[in-house]
């Protein structure tokens, strides 16, 4: 069974701008991997992330380096042993899952989950801005059940209070994107408790998060940049209450499933998140997120246009992917 691999880059405009503490961007740069065999094509999408030293040219080159190995019919588990975790491996891994489903006729959800996938409530992300602008954003989306709010400055109190005032009834996740410090942690935690924040994501830099074990956590704290692979999880249990699993960090659905299991065994809550990408990148994550405590798969909602066919979103609900999209 001979395979053919190809990879291409695509650009999708973001609706407005997407702003976090590290900067703003107006486009989503994605890489698509396609693996063809016996007349079927499996596809996977990844989003190279500069925070992890990735770029579109670098990811394209990394996928190309694997051409001979993938075309020799390597399995997903072997791929995980010889290729480092990251966006490039995610694209190949998800393409292999999709190809297997198309060749076997067995949908991916039947392989990875006990029950048929259901629609999920996803967070909707609000960009970082001045408090007044963030309150307006929150008020505009106050009807959504779950908001994810980008913060991460030296003093986020006014932003946190403004968002809560704008969306008094929504559950709120704060994503500090490593922007707080051990010195202002207790201060920000107190504001979070006052504002009834449901979860705080990665408040401290990944290499400097040991202070979390020394602070009382009045609200649950979730690891993002601090967790990539399964072996990371055991080191985090004294610092975090949850982990954010992203396919691009884990290097694909195969590793993400193992990561989910390891976290559950250690009593950590599960959040399934995403980079800003299209429905093709979100589709396997929707299956991974079945039963998760928090879901943040709004990438396509932040785009000016998505690929077609895409995932079906209805308000804050995201539905499982159709086979014509993935899996």
Automatic annotation (TrEMBL):
Highest classification ranks of the organism: Bacteria, Pseudomonadati, Pseudomonadota, Alphaproteobacteria, Hyphomicrobiales
Named cofactor requirement(s): Mg(2+)
Protein name per UniProt: Dipeptide epimerase
InterPro entries for the chain: Dipeptide_epimerase (IPR034603), Enolase-like_C_sf (IPR036849), Enolase-like_N (IPR029017), Enolase_C-like (IPR029065), Mandelate_racemase_C (IPR013342), Mandelate_racemase_N_dom (IPR013341)
Cofactor: record remark: Binds 1 Mg(2+) ion per subunit.
EC number assigned by the record: 5.1.1.-
Domain Mandelate racemase/muconate lactonizing enzyme C-terminal: start-end pairs: 131-222
Pfam families linked to this entry: MR_MLE_C, MR_MLE_N
Keywords annotated in UniProt: Isomerase, Magnesium, Metal-binding
Record has Isomerase as a keyword: yes
Recorded family membership: Belongs to the mandelate racemase/muconate lactonizing enzyme family.
The organism's place on the tree of life at top rank: Bacteria
């Amino acid at each position: 069974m001979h395979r053919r691999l190809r990879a291409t880059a695509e650009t999708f405009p973001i609706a407005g701008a997407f702003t976090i503490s590290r900067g703003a961007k107006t486009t989503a740069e994605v890489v698509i991997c396609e693996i063809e065999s016996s007349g079927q094509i499996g596809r996977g999408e990844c989003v190279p992330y500069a925070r992890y030293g990735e770029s579109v040219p670098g990811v394209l080159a990394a996928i190309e380096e694997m051409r001979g190995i993938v075309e020799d019919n390597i399995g997903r588990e072997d791929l995980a042993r010889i290729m480092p975790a990251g966006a490039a491996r995610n694209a190949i891994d998800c393409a292999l899952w999709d190809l297997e489903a198309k060749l076997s006729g067995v949908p991916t959800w039947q392989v990875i989950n006990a029950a048929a996938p259901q629609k999920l409530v996803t967070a909707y992300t609000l960009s970082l801005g001045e408090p007044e602008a963030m309150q307006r954003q929150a008020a505009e989306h106050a009807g959504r059940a779950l908001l994810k709010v980008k913060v991460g400055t030296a003093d986020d109190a006014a932003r946190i209070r403004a968002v809560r005032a704008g969306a008094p009834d929504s559950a709120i996740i704060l994503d500090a994107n490593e922007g707080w410090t051990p010195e202002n942690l207790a201060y920000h935690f107190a504001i979070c408790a006052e504002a009834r924040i449901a979860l705080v994501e990665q408040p401290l830099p990944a290499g400097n998060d040991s202070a979390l074990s020394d602070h009382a956590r009045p609200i649950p704290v979730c690891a993002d940049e601090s967790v990539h692979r399964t072996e990371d999880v055991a080191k985090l249990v004294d610092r975090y209450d949850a982990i954010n699993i992203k396919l691009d960090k884990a290097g694909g659905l195969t590793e993400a499933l193992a990561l989910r299991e390891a976290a559950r065994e250690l009593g950590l809550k599960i959040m399934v998140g995403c980079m800003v990408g299209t429905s093709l990148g979100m589709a396997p994550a929707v299956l991974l997120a079945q039963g998760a405590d928090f879901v943040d798969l709004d990438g396509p909602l932040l785009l000016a246009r998505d690929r077609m066919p895409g995932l079906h979103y209805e308000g804050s609900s995201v539905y499982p992917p159709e086979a014509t999209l993935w899996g």
